[in-house]
UniProtKB/TrEMBL annotation:
One of its GO terms (biological process) is microtubule cytoskeleton organization. GO terms for cellular component: ciliary basal body. SUPFAM superfamilies: Glutathione synthetase ATP-binding domain-like. The lineage of its organism: Eukaryota, Metazoa, Chordata, Craniata, Vertebrata. It comes from Cirrhinus molitorella. This is Uncharacterized protein. InterPro entries: TTL/TTLL_fam.
């Protein structure tokens, strides 16, 4: 009863607040408050955050963690690992003495009205005397954010909202909010019919290890060279035999080869259940009576090392919209270091998790883990500090960065087709619903030859800005983590700025094709970043990379065009599977059957492929042909029509046939646009539409010959 009473009181309070909002908005227009930033929040990249005040949150929460030592790491008890005293001394006082690396935009002040990427910054807008006050009052309505489901990102989110002077609704709101921040999935809050949600439907599913591997593999079939940044992978259990046979053949051909493989459970995270093997016979495929779903992947044996330690990079990527496709990359990321010096895998060291796995969640339990207040030392550092180290050794870091950008864009392009299917199923065109955006966590490894390799993409990257620290045996405390705060608050704050509803309406994509990814980073050495003045926010730490680099990457969006056809025949009923009748209609409307390919053959093709995919997706509740199965059928049909050509050309020819046939049909059959397509700017939507690709001579490689980087590495 009292809970209910409390809730009613809060709702009443909120209703009053809604009424008061207009007045509050007008008040906010006073020059002092338009763009002021709380003075206790600094945006300086190199500030010593250990001394910063962190408003409104307890700096440490003690909890006894009796189970902390019982956690299993690949069969190894963490309690077995000799706990050593943590070394807090490293790097404590280095901050101010270090030469600093500035990545353009991470902390610079906005002087004019436009941010680094050419966007008009609504939070920077000043009354210039020409605009009448009431008009401006409307424009500057306070943006509202529902944070009730934010979970572990709450602290960073709260800080961001405070910096932006927006309004937070921590227990939700009776009326709609502009932005809903979910901690896990699109469905955290049900029944949202407007506004924007920070998760796409289906993203979690798409980024499970098997689905990501499948999506990248489809692209590898069409563009083997462009997608060679993802290690060769096999899906278990269905490709167990294929894996065993290929490895046996490989070893038979070259006895000197000693490849290593990493096995990752499909839905695992934080290194859980991961192990290394050197022989297919060592696969632990069965767990109890269940066959484990997993990906087994070529292990990169020669990673780039710093101070003899393996490390990986966590980069934050904002998918701002699927249609038109808009991708941003955070200019600052995290580098996570192993805590045991690296040695190439041998039978002896395969189980040394602190040597081979860079996961923070594992290495934090090592006695060698270094918590540091500096962003450029310790076991977790900023990526820019690593780039600085590399630059000082003569590494062309612009090239490294541009390769990383290309990897990110290509990966998102691989994910988009299926994401569009999920999107249409959850928010069918014509029904009310929110639009979506999402921050993804890309985990990237640099090889010794500096080539970036994609390890995985996280749908829910940790946005925690505190970390656990063992203060006495078995007792852990949450303490602020300067490096996490440095990176993550900027990412969340600037994502919010980009999703500002007023901003989105006016958004003009300034650059739709020129430039090269290398321009994305400008490295400056010299003085520390200047502190943000009280009336400005720093320039955006998120850099637009798509549609900016449309010209360079649009030709890869071939599968997306197949998905567009799939969606058209799927209709708007909220399903994700094509029925046999719809498949027949597709064949008929695209005029693909003829005397040598009868409708009976079409039915057999449908049944064959659909049945096989149903076996590969045992969890699926829906019957019918999924997008991946449709793509396979499309490839088959393409190969039938023009046998002599490489696959990519076959597919492009068939796409032209289908698109031509469908274009001629009545408007009423055309699919209505997604409502995620909020960008009303015709220039940008034109620019991001996949264009027809005409390729040079191509080689068909449906079954890629096995080429392991163990061998490729020896060339470097
Ligand atoms: P999880 O989601 O459990 O963290 P990851 O795919 O990120 O799984 O793998 C965990 C860690 O294992 C990575 O952070 C990286 O250090 C290492 N790793 C993963 N894949 C490879 C690979 N193919 N080659 C070398 N190291 C890898």
């Amino acid at each position: 009863m009292s809970d209910h009473y409390e809730r009613v009181k809060i709702e009443l309070q909120q209703m009053k607040e809604v009424e008061n909002e207009a007045a509050a908005d007008v008040q906010q227009l006073s020059p002092a408050s338009v763009s002021s930033v709380p003075t206790d929040v600094s945006f300086t990249a190199r500030r010593d955050l250990s001394r910063s005040s962190i408003n409104g949150r307890s700096r440490s929460k003690s909890r006894s963690k009796a189970d902390g030592h019982e956690r299993q790491v690949n069969g190894k008890q963490l309690s077995d690992l000799t706990p050593q005293k943590l070394d807090y001394s490293q790097g404590q006082s280095r901050v101010s003495n270090e030469p600093s690396l500035h990545i353009k935009g991470t902390g610079k002040l906005l002087k004019g009205k436009t941010a680094a990427n050419g966007h008009v910054e609504s939070c920077q807008r000043q009354t210039d005397g020409k605009e009448d006050g009431s008009k401006v009052a409307k424009k500057r309505r306070t943006v509202t954010v529902d944070t009730s489901k934010a979970k572990t990102s709450l602290e960073a989110l709260k800080m961001s909202i405070r910096q932006l002077k927006w309004k937070e609704f921590p227990i939700g709101r009776r009326t709609a909010c502009d932005i809903y921040w979910h901690g896990v999935s699109f469905h955290d809050n049900e029944n949202i019919v407007s506004g924007q949600v920070n998760k796409f439907p289906g993203m979690i599913e798409m980024l499970r290890k098997i689905n990501l591997s499948r999506a990248v593999r489809t692209m590898q079939e069409l563009f083997p060279e462009e997608y060679n940044f993802y290690p060769r992978s096999w899906i278990l259990p269905e490709e167990y035999q294929l894996f065993s046979t290929q490895i046996r053949l490989l070893k038979d051909n070259d006895a000197t080869l000693k490849p290593t493989f990493i096995v990752k459970p499909d839905s695992g995270s934080q290194g859980d259940g991961i192990y290394l093997i050197r022989d297919p016979a060592d696969l632990r495929v069965i767990s109890g009576s269940q066959i484990k779903q997993a990906v087994v992947q070529e292990y990169i044996q020669k990673p780039l090392l710093i101070d003899k330690l393996k490390f990986d990079i966590r980069l934050y990527v904002l998918v701002r919209s699927l249609e038109p496709l808009e991708i941003y990359i955070a200019k600052e990321g995290l580098s996570r270091f192993c805590t045991e010096p690296y040695q190439e895998p041998s039978q002896k060291n395969l189980s040394h998790v602190f040597m081979h796995l860079t996961n923070y969640s594992l290495n934090v339990h090592s006695g060698n883990f270094v918590h540091s207040d500096s962003c450029s030392t310790g076991s977790k550092r900023t990526f820019s500090s690593v780039l600085y180290r590399l630059a000082s050794k003569g590494v062309d870091i612009k090239k490294v960065w541009s390769d990383i950008i290309a990897l990110v864009i290509k990966t998102v392009i691989a994910l988009v087709p299926e994401l569009k299917v999920y999107y249409q199923a959850d928010i069918p065109p014509g029904k009310p619903g929110p639009t979506c955006f999402q921050i993804l966590g890309f985990d990237i490894l640099l090889m010794k030859n500096l080539k970036p390799v994609l390890l995985e993409v996280n749908a829910n990257p940790s946005m925690r800005i505190e970390h656990e620290q063992e203060v006495s045996p078995g007792v852990f405390e949450y303490v602020p983590s300067p490096v996490d705060e440095e990176v993550k608050v900027g990412v969340i704050r600037d994502t919010l700025r980009l999703m500002n509803p007023a901003e989105r309406k006016q958004h003009v994509t300034s650059n739709t094709g020129g430039g090269s990814p290398e321009e994305a980073i400008v490295v400056e050495t010299g003085s520390d970043e200047k502190e943000g003045s009280a009336d400005s926010l720093p320039s955006l730490c998120l850099k637009q990379v798509f549609p900016k680099y449309t010209k360079q990457f649009n030709y890869l969006r071939v599968v997306e065009r197949i998905a567009t056809i799939f969606l058209r025949f799927l209709g708007v009923k909220g399903t994700m599977r094509l029925g046999p009748t719809s498949f027949r209609t597709f064949i008929r409307n695209c005029k693909l059957s003829n005397s040598s390919f009868s409708m009976a053959s079409v039915d057999i093709l449908y049944i064959d492929i659909t049945r096989r995919w149903a076996g590969m997706l045992p969890d699926s509740r829906e019957a019918g042909m999924c997008l991946q199965a449709f793509i396979e059928a499309f490839f088959y049909l393409a190969a039938r029509r023009s046998k002599a050509l490489p696959l990519r050309e076959q597919v492009l020819l068939l796409l032209e046939v289908c698109e031509g046939a469908l274009e001629g049909q009545s408007h009423s059959e055309k699919p209505r646009p997604h409502r995620s397509h909020t960008n009303t700017n015709p220039a940008s939507s034109q620019s991001s539409a996949p264009t027809t690709f005409s390729s040079p001579a191509l080689t068909r490689r449906r079954h890629r010959p096995l080429q392991l980087s163990a061998k490729a590495n020896t060339e470097n």
